[in-house]
Amino acid sequence: MNGAESLIRTLVAGGVDTCFTNPGTSEMHLVAALDRVSEMRCVLGLFEGVVTGAADGYARITGRPACTLVHLGPGLANGIANLHNAKRAQVPLINLVGEHPEYHLKFDAPLTSDIEGIARPYSHWLRTSRSAADVGRDAAESIRAAANHPGYISTLVVPADVAWSDGGVVAPKSTIEKAALPPSANIERAAAMLRSGLPTALMITGDGLYGDGLRAAGRIAAATKAKLLSPYPFARMERGAGRVNVQRLPYVPDQAIELLKEFRQLILVGAGAPASYFAYPGKGALLTQPDTTTFAMTSPSENSAGSLIALSEALGLNVRSEILIQSVERPTAPSGEISLQGLAATVAALLPENAIVADEAMTSGRGMMAASRGAAPHDWLANTGGSIGIALPLAVGAAVAAPDRRVLCLTADGSSMYTLQALWTMAREGLNVTSVVFANRAYAVLQWEYSGLGVGTPSPRAADLFSIGRPDIDWVAMGKSMGVPSSRATTLDMFGDLLRKSFATEGPSLIEISL
Amino acid sequence: MNGAESLIRTLVAGGVDTCFTNPGTSEMHLVAALDRVSEMRCVLGLFEGVVTGAADGYARITGRPACTLVHLGPGLANGIANLHNAKRAQVPLINLVGEHPEYHLKFDAPLTSDIEGIARPYSHWLRTSRSAADVGRDAAESIRAAANHPGYISTLVVPADVAWSDGGVVAPKSTIEKAALPPSANIERAAAMLRSGLPTALMITGDGLYGDGLRAAGRIAAATKAKLLSPYPFARMERGAGRVNVQRLPYVPDQAIELLKEFRQLILVGAGAPASYFAYPGKGALLTQPDTTTFAMTSPSENSAGSLIALSEALGLNVRSEILIQSVERPTAPSGEISLQGLAATVAALLPENAIVADEAMTSGRGMMAASRGAAPHDWLANTGGSIGIALPLAVGAAVAAPDRRVLCLTADGSSMYTLQALWTMAREGLNVTSVVFANRAYAVLQWEYSGLGVGTPSPRAADLFSIGRPDIDWVAMGKSMGVPSSRATTLDMFGDLLRKSFATEGPSLIEISL
Question: Is residue B473 within 8 angstroms of chain A, CB to CB?
Answer without folding.
Answer: yes
